[in-house]
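Contributing new records

If you add data, match the layout below exactly. Sequence lines come first and carry their own label; structure lines follow with theirs. Keep one chain per record. Anything else will be rejected by the validation script.
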Amino acid sequence: MYKIKTYNKISKSGLEVFDEKYTIGDEVENADGAIVRSAALHDTEFPASLKAIARAGAGTNNIPIDRCSEQGIVVFNTPGANANAVKELVLAGLFLSSRRVVSGIEWAKTLKGNGAEVGKMVEKGKGAFGGPEIKGKKLGVIGLGAIGVMVANAANHLGMTVYGYDPYLSVKSAWNLNHNAVYINDINEIYANCDYITIHVPLVDSTKKMINADTIAKMKDGVRILNFSRAALIDDAALIAALESGKVAAYVTDFPTDDVLGVDGIIAIPHLGASTPESEDNCASMAAKELIDYIENGNIVNSVNLPEVTMPRSGANRVCVIHKNVPNMLTKITALVSDDGINIENLLNKSRGDYAYTMLDIGEADIATLEKEIRDIEGIIRVRII
């Protein structure tokens, strides 16, 4: 039996992925795995039994990644599972940034009580809420992951000229990107040419406040900016100043901060990007499958702290080792196995930053002895034999 701890309310369809071998709930102790959505885990003490945490979503800022790596806890996310939901809201934001629909709706509410005069008042006042069509305009997409590519392709179908920038463009994303998109190597081309800019990058040290006074100065006058990634990607003070000067025509964000609320020209959406039943189901199901495959087979897919390592099962036992990425580690592990007279039937080793993961399928062995011997190697973080 395995135990899965839930830190948030998780979609029923996701929990149904687990079979009778699993006990699941928010009161579970000494869990083998955990599923979390937005709950902050930075101050949470994890039990020694915890092998993996799956984030039912893309961002993992609520999880202490470094501490998990040090403890040999694999952290998964679910890239692409909520991509369509976010894409649809980005498209809504694109229209809202142009047509002043939100302001118009709020103004229309003030006409209540004027009876037959409402129609005339609407016709007289609607001119204050005009805005351009997006067809024929240029959209810059910064970040071409699952969401960015979907946004780029949809905007292209809506008649926009799309510029895409991503220095880490994956082969999968490249294949999925519409051939009409203009892929550029210099982000400044987006700033200089695009009427609309949408940001789809992770929040890391290098991307904090990437939209700031300097980058805004490079943009076209009247640019419209969309942020459906993370609040800290934007320098709020610089953005507000640009709105006041007219340099930026509108800003739409799914991550409101106190500074941007109530500012004219800013449409603040309360983090609704993935708030669809379909998205929650997809994320939970993917998270559950990732946990199951790792707990039962040792395979790692969509981890944010360890390399992707998967191989079909062969042999009587599978040895899964998380260790420091240092020289001769693989040699030491395989030498131990060989010295014990155990046949290695399959092996895979990959590294990611300071950490590495080695998987060996082996024949019959004294599991307890082998596990202890491997654990005693300097630089070993965690050993499992399944």
